[in-house]
Design brief:
Layout lengths: L13 E4 L4 E3 L7 E6 L6 H12 L1 H6 L2 E7 L3 H11 L4 E4 L4 H6 L2 E6 L2 E6 L3 E4 L5 E5 L7 H11 L1
Parallel strand pairs: 3-4, 4-5
Antiparallel strand pairs: 1-2, 1-5, 3-8, 6-7, 8-9
Length: about 160
């Protein structure tokens, strides 16, 4: 697994959102995009991470940042996650992990002594021109939103 790095063009992936509508990264040129990969909707760590981003939406809006959460969950599960946790941003379904492969975040993981292939928790801040500006890969789920906001406020 080799995640894309800052300075690389973001792959123009198209994924289905929680409503089953196609969203392409190229549709968001002119805005910054926080494209964050998380393993599974409605699990404890992923819930805390999403709630943190939900709670700072106004600050992200002030920085012209659109948040897109990406997992391998089916569309139907994404809608349930948004409803249950009152999420105020878009979730995308990457069931075949094509986007995860394109961004280099699909690969070997270890959990409870088992090794398997899965989605790694990594976030990409994509600039207005579609280039990866920053990669967030060292954070705790409960402070992910603070790490993102700190980065944006330093600019």
């Amino acid at each position: 697994m080799t995640p894309l790095e800052a300075g690389a063009p973001a792959p123009n992936v198209s994924l289905l959102d929680q409503h089953g509508e196609s969203i392409s990264l190229s549709d968001l040129k002119g805005k910054k995009v926080l494209f964050y990969f998380y393993p599974k909707a409605m699990t404890p760590g992923c819930t805390v991470q999403a709630q943190g981003l939900r709670d700072i939406k106004a600050e992200l809006d002030a920085h012209n940042v659109v948040t897109l959460g990406v997992s391998i969950d089916p569309v139907k599960r994404l809608g349930k996650f948004i409803e249950r946790d009152e999420l105020n941003f878009t979730l995308l379904s990457d069931e075949d992990h094509a986007a995860a492969d394109a961004f280099g975040v699909w690969g070997q993981k270890k959990f409870m002594g088992k090794t398997y292939d899965g989605l790694h928790r990594i976030s990409f801040l994509i600039n207005e021109e579609g280039v990866i500006e920053h990669v967030f890969n060292k954070f705790k789920t409960k402070t992910h939103h603070e790490v993102v906001l700190d980065y944006l406020n330093e600019k």
